[in-house]
Design a protein that fits this description.
Elements lengths: L1 E2 L2 E9 L3 E8 L3 E11 L6 H12 L10 E5 L7 E6 L4 E2 H8 L4 H22 L1 E2 L8 E4 L4 E4 L6 E2 L17 H4 L6 H17 L2 H6 L8 H10 L11 H16 L15
Antiparallel strand pairs: 1-2, 2-3, 3-4, 4-6, 5-6, 7-9, 8-11, 9-10
């Protein structure tokens, strides 16, 4: 298969609404790799949501998000295709499934990188992601970077009439279940739950919001504030949270720099 100048090489993953393929330029080959996302339902409202996601992604210029390389629609078997920059790494859920939970210090740098992306998303574009979860994070472990994926559920400039398009159980905050509009604190709730998953790899812990006993007390408090059921009691400012996290890392670990790619969590 082919779209424009890019050939499909292999299937990378598949979700409820789409498939993602590795692609290569038909002349430059592996020197120009891309991800090709295909909308597989080909019916409303998914067609419109996919088109809106591509249009929004085309505006973004930030290291925490992929770049849009191309977009196409046709009435054949391929349907709608979004061509994005290739991000080398491992989805967060697959990394934990394979390697196990990670240390508190690693949880901190991963969350810090997520906050960097949310700062840009919330303040530059007044947009709430609404579907943050480990599967939507690409971890570049050696480079200590995180790329936020899948903006299909994002709420752009939400107002009092806005409603969530969807979400993932466990990471979906109470206010969205109640039909309230998405707010920046909506994403903060999901970040806190991501922290629990990184520490345990346990979906039940995520669902229940149970903070592990072996987590550093300062990080326990930090996560606890993010997963408050009342959105008004959660912090909303990603930049302020990054500063809080930097102070936490200095107090808890004596450094704000990770010198090794990642450290597995010690288990008794």
């Amino acid at each position: 298969m082919k779209t424009g100048q890019f050939k499909f090489k292999k299937l990378l993953g598949e979700g409820a609404f789409g498939r993602v393929y590795l692609g290569e330029h038909d002349v430059l080959g592996a020197d120009f790799q891309v991800c090709i996302k295909q909308e597989k339902k080909q019916k409303e409202p998914f067609i419109t949501m996919f088109r809106e996601e591509a249009a929004f992604l085309a505006k973004l210029r930030h290291f925490a998000f992929p770049s849009l390389v191309g977009y196409s629609e046709d009435n054949g078997d391929l349907g709608q295709l979004m061509v994005m920059s290739y991000i080398d790494g491992t989805p967060g859920d697959k990394y934990i499934n394979k390697n196990g939970p990670v240390s508190d210090h690693d949880i901190c740098w991963i969350i810090d990188r997520i906050f960097a992306g949310l700062s840009y998303l919330h303040f530059k574009w007044e947009t709430v992601h609404c579907d943050l979860k480990p599967a939507n994070l690409m971890l570049d472990v050696p480079g200590h970077e995180v790329t936020i994926l899948d903006l299909g559920m994002a709420a752009t400039s939400p107002d009092v009439w806005s409603r969530a398009k969807g979400g993932t159980p466990g990471y979906f905050p109470p206010e969205m279940s109640q039909g309230l509009p998405p707010v920046p604190q909506t994403d903060m709730y999901a970040v806190g739950k991501i922290g629990l998953y990184l520490a345990t790899g346990d979906d039940t812990v995520v669902q229940q919001g149970t903070i592990p006993d072996d987590m550093h007390p300062l990080l326990q408090d930090f996560i606890f504030n993010l997963i408050q059921r009342d959105a008004s009691k959660r912090p909303a400012d990603a930049d302020a949270l990054r500063e809080d996290l930097e102070r936490l890392r200095h107090k808890a670990f004596g450094t704000t720099v990770s010198t090794v790619p990642i450290t597995p969590r010690r288990t008794s």
